[in-house]
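stage 2 :: seqdesign
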C-alpha cells in the first residue's frame, strides 16, 4: 500500500487491455496525447486503470510522486486501487500538457 492510500500495480505492458473495464474499475484511455476522460470520480476502494491506446509511449506520474507508471507502450495498462479519499492530480511527464485527476470519495 502506498502512503497516500492507493494501491498500485506494475504496468502490464505485455498484456493488451480489453476496451471494457471490469465492474470494480474505471478506465482512463491515453489517446491523442491526452487522458480520456481527464477527470474521474470514484468511490473509495475503486480501481482506476489507465489503458495505452496511443501509438506513442506515455507514463502516468502523480503530483508528489504518490504513484507512477513508467514509460509504457501502446497496448499496456496500469491499475491502482484508491483506498483513501482525496484528489490525485497526475500527468504524463513525457508530453507537456497531458494532465488528469482522480477524485476518490
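stage 2 :: out
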Amino acid at each position: 500500500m502506498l502512503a497516500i492510500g492507493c494501491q498500485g500495480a506494475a504496468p502490464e505492458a505485455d498484456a493488451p487491455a480489453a476496451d471494457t473495464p471490469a465492474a470494480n474499475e474505471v478506465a482512463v484511455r491515453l489517446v491523442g496525447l491526452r487522458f480520456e476522460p481527464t477527470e474521474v470520480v470514484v468511490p473509495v476502494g475503486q480501481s482506476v486503470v489507465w489503458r495505452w491506446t496511443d501509438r506513442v509511449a506515455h507514463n502516468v506520474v502523480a503530483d508528489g510522486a504518490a504513484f507512477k507508471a513508467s514509460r509504457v507502450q501502446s497496448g499496456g495498462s496500469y491499475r491502482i486501487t484508491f483506498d483513501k479519499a482525496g484528489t490525485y492530480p497526475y500527468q504524463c511527464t513525457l508530453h507537456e500538457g497531458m494532465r488528469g485527476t482522480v477524485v476518490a470519495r
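stage 3 :: structure notes
- Residues 1-5, 9-19 have pLDDT under 50 and may be disordered.
- The CA atoms of residues 41 and 64 lie 20 Å apart.
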